[in-house]
Every structure is written in C-alpha cells, then in structure tokens.
Amino acid sequence: MNPTIDLILSHRSIRQFTPEPISASQLDQILSAAQSASSSSFLQANSLIRVTDRGLRATLAELAGHQAYVAEAAEFLLFCADYQRHSQIVPDAQTGFVEQLMIGAIDGALMAQNALLAAQSLGLGGVYIGGIRNNPAAVSELLGLPHQVIPLFGLCLGHPAQQPEQKPRLPRALVVHENRYPETLDRALLAQYDSQIHDYYLARSSNNKVQTWSGQIKAILGKEARPFMLGFLQSKGFCLK
After folding, report:
1. CA-based nearest residue to 236, from 141, 150, 152, 138
2. How far is CA 77 from the centre of its chain?
3. 106 neighbors 43 (Cβ within 8 angstroms)
4. Cα–Cα distance between 141 and 221 in angstroms, integer?
5. What backbone torsions phi and psi does residue 147 show, to the nearest 5 degrees?
6. Per residue in 14-38, pLDDT tens?
7. 41 — alpha (psi -120 to 50), left (phi > 0) or beta?
8. C-alpha angle with apex 100: 99 to 105, nearest 5 degrees?
9. What is the per-residue burial (b if ≥16 Cβ within 10 Å, else e) of 125-154?
10. Mean pLDDT calculated for residue range 169-191
11. Mean pLDDT score of the chain
12. How many CB atoms lie within 10 A of CB 90?
C-alpha cells in the first residue's frame, strides 16, 4: 500500500461537520484537483457552482430531500454538465446527442472524485448529493442554469464531526470479470454479502435497520426512478437524438 491507496480505501461519506470553514488555500487545491481530471476529447463539458449564499443553501437542502447537511457543510459544490459554453463559441455546434450527456455526466463524476479525494487528503470529508435531481428544474431556476446546462449532483465538504463505519463493498468476484461477463450470478457469494450487510446495518452506530443489500436494491429498483428526468433533459437541450 501507499498513502494514496490508503486514502482511497479509507473513504466514508461524511454528513456531520464542525463549524470550521475550509480555507481559501484548501478550496483552491480542491478546485485545481477537480479541473485536473481527465476530459473526454478535451471538451471540458462541465461547470461547478460554488453555493455560498445561506438562503440558497437552505432551499437546496429542501429541494434535495430535506438533507440538512447541504445547508450546514462548510462548502457546497454543484457539478453540472455544460454545453452552453461550447454553443457560445460555436453557434452552429451539433449538440443534443445522448453521447454528449454521457460525456458530461462521466467527466463530472471524474472531477468530483478528484475533488473529494483532494479534500480527504487535507483532512476534510464530504458526501455526494444525488438528491439534487429530485427537483432539477427548480434547482436550475434557483441557480440560473441556462439552456444546455443541467445539474448532475452536489458535493458537501467540511471538517468531519463524525467517523462512521465503512460500508462493505460487493465481493470482487461479483464485480470484476475476466474477458467475458459471467452467464450466471453467484448466488452463494451474494447470500454471504447480504448477510454481511445485514450485520453491518444492525451494528452500526447510527441509523440502524434490518436490511440486506438485495433487499435494498429491490426497494430502489422496484419503483419509478425520477420519471420526469427525460422531459427535463430534453427541455434543456439534451437527449434530443
């Protein structure tokens, strides 16, 4: 192991923060790390909104599903897919393709992971906020996101006020395959993992529950997943072709 790998393997989502601010130097390093991520075809099809207004933060916390830490964290960054900049440079740019949305989403995630790793290396912590997509139109209006700019997710950052237990990940044999995708799912290995997750949820220090991973996935994928999203994306100039 080395310090970088140790840092990656120690990841935990932090949702409780001290009042201590993130320094300007720390924020600069975090943003520089974010911009240093790989960019498909060097399109750089992303923008970040640093939300410092407490009123806006409070509204975002409600729009994201009443997640108080959106308002309480020292910093909140909104990651966006952005082709507005490109259309201003090239007015007849060919946009609206699904592939372009995938590039914006993938590259945005790469930027965010760089940002969080940089923050963790500085002794900070954070949590991603996918709940931003609960109300993407309202978020866009609130923050003035123009046509061809969409909110992907947020990132809370701050000084940790908790040290939560680490969630066990899927066994590698269920995730990493060699040369071909397996024809069948290893149910025995999955059952072992379900038992591990069941014990984790029962024993963790907060938000205890009786749940397996398979049960959790059934609950999530057994209902509609933001069915309004396609209409919103198309209204913003994405997924038109």
Report:
1. 150
2. 10
3. no
4. 29
5. -55, 140
6. 999 999 999 999 999 999 999 999 9
7. left
8. 95
9. bbbbbebbbbbbbebbebbebeebbbbbbb
10. 98
11. 97
12. 9
pTM of the model: 0.96
Average pLDDT over residues 182-187: 97
Helix, coil or strand: residue 152: strand
- Taking the C-alpha atoms of residue 107 and residue 114, their distance in angstroms, rounded to an integer, is 11
CA distance 136 to 228: 9
Distances (CA, A) of 169 to 6, 25, 77: 16, 34, 26
CA atoms within 13 Å, Cβ hemisphere of 33: 18
Contact partners, residue 162, CB within 8 Å, separation at least 6? 14, 15, 16
Beta bridge partners of 157: 75, 126
Alpha helices, DSSP H only, in 122-226? 136-143, 187-203, 213-221
Q: How many CB atoms lie within 10 A of CB 166?
A: 13
DSSP assignments along 40-84, one per residue: GGG---EEEEE---HHHHHHHHHHTTS-THHHHSSEEEEEEEE-H
Are 112 and 58 within 8 A, CB to CB?
no
